[in-house]
What we know:
By secondary structure, the protein is mostly helical. Helices cover 59% and strands 0% of the residues.
Amino acid sequence: IQAREVAARERGDRMGWTQENMWSLAWALGFEQKPAPTAPLIDGDVVGPMLEFLPQHDGSIAELLEHADPRSEAEVLDLEDLFYCAHNAVRSAQNGDPSTVPPDFHPIMNGGAVHERRHALTWMISPGVSWEDTDLST
């Protein structure tokens, strides 16, 4: 039973972080709510509309692209640059300099959201690079 609790907790945690990735990806395809480095962890106010925007489990990529209104390359690059800078501030805070983030910003939880949102943005501007090999150095 204990192993099941651990698996459920870890799977639940991964699902939450995956939704942070999805937010950036959905935004790039035209989802209205723009991810921000200072936004709290994703919640129902974002997840609900985002899931309505994205195709259902039986949907296809073609269906998604039919109603997508992709952002311009410049918009994606600008947001990725902002997240790169925020990620650098997060890393500094995680390494002991809390002055690089707002006072109510949790370097691990909020920093994890910055990391995941940036991962999706950086991957999008890295042609030919796999998700796992996306360079997230700061």
